[in-house]
Each structure stands twice: as structure tokens, then as C-alpha cells.
Write the C-alpha cells for this entry.
Amino acid sequence: MSKFVITTFDWVPEIPRGYVRDIRLRWALEEAGLPYDVESTPFENRKDDHFSRQPFGQVPWLTDGDVTIFESGAILLYLAERSNVLMPREKRGRNEVIEWLFAALNSVELATVPWSIFMFSEDNVETPGRKNLDSFVASRLRHMEQVLSKRDWLAREFSIADIVMSDALRLVDRFSGLEGHNACREYISRASNRPAFLKAYKDQIEFYEAADAKRNA
Ligand SMILES: N[C@@H](CCC(=O)N[C@@H](CS)C(=O)NCC(=O)O)C(=O)O
């Protein structure tokens, strides 16, 4: 079996460190105990080669021999097919994971990513559109709070759906958007105290510290 390769940016500013989406891949591979390397692509001056692998000029993408795959959700599904610990094999468990994976990407992040862009930009102007976005996020969080107050993980056991959902909620929490949502916060705490997450997080932070050192040398 060839070694998986994660490609991420060679450098990013301080703000997204610990949240760059290669963390989802690192985390899944650590959970699965699958060996991998991390390579980098320029953050500045993105070239055609980058766009040929990730058409939006983003990261991450995964290489597995002659296969390259982009979109963190698609990559996690790809990895889950190659491990027994990221998604159950039986039909019902598998379906539960897939529906929650899409819910994280398409029902929760659909609201929380635009909201976090406002928060990153420190734009708090109360336009009608912003008020709509805030109530969209609040509604999604209210429903997640109800779900997570009744279970530890989205499907029966920890899975790739939890990697994406907890990562999406972690970003909201970073901007204090989870006040009053104790079940969501406890869920993030459960997920982010897993040894695989702690390793992935530490490795990403160190990767960018090394990039700073190289830049400043
Ligand atoms: N839907 C993509 C989003 C990837 C994404 O947002 N990547 C960020 C890094 S965390 C990025 O490349 N940002 C730079 C840009 O958008 O130009 C995925 O989940 O893989």
C-alpha cells in the first residue's frame, strides 16, 4: 500500500492555524493508524498545478498513489472506506454516518462558515442580511444542541461525521458563538480530547511554526 500524502499550504497567517482543513485529514489518518506524509503548496502565488488538484486553489487534497482527491468531506469518505474505525461497515451505521457528514457540511457549515468570515473580519454591522445570517446560525445551533444533548457521537460510534461536525462547531466556539450551548461545547471537548485530534492539532501548529522559522531565517 502506498503512503497517503496530505497537501496543505506551505504557510498561513496566525489566525487560521489550528483550523486549516488539513487537520481533518490528519485527524482521520491518526484515528485509523494509517501512515501519511504532509507536503506543501505555496500559499502565495498559487500555480496551475495547484488548481489542477484543487480547482478553487484551496487546500487540502490527498494523494494515494495515482489518485488525488479534494474536498475534505470527500477525502474523509475515501479514507473511511479504507479503515474499520472511521465508519461502520454495516448498511444502517454507514448511512447514519453519511447523512451526518452531509449535515455537517451542508446544513451546519453552510451557515457557520459565512458567519465565521464576518467574525474573522470583525464586521459586526447589523445589516438586514447579517441579522438573517445570525438567526440562520442560531437555528442550526439550537437543533444541534438538542441532538447532542442526547448522544455522545452523531452515529452510534465516533466517525468521520464527528470529525467534520466538531471541527465546524470548534470554529463557532472560537468566536464565542456557543455560549449557552453546553451540549455542543461538551461534544467539542470530547472530540478534541481524543489523542488523534491532539496529535493532528499539535502537528499542524508545529508545521506552521517551522514555516515561520524558514521564512525568517
Ligand atoms: N470545501 C473545502 C474548503 C477548503 C478550505 O476552505 N480551505 C481553506 C483552508 S482551511 C483554503 O484553502 N483557504 C484559502 C482560499 O480559500 O483561498 C474543503 O472542505 O476541503
Summary: The mean pLDDT is 97. The two ends are 37 Å apart (CA to CA). Strands lie at 4-9, 36-41, 61-64, 67-70. DSSP finds eight helices and four strands in the chain.
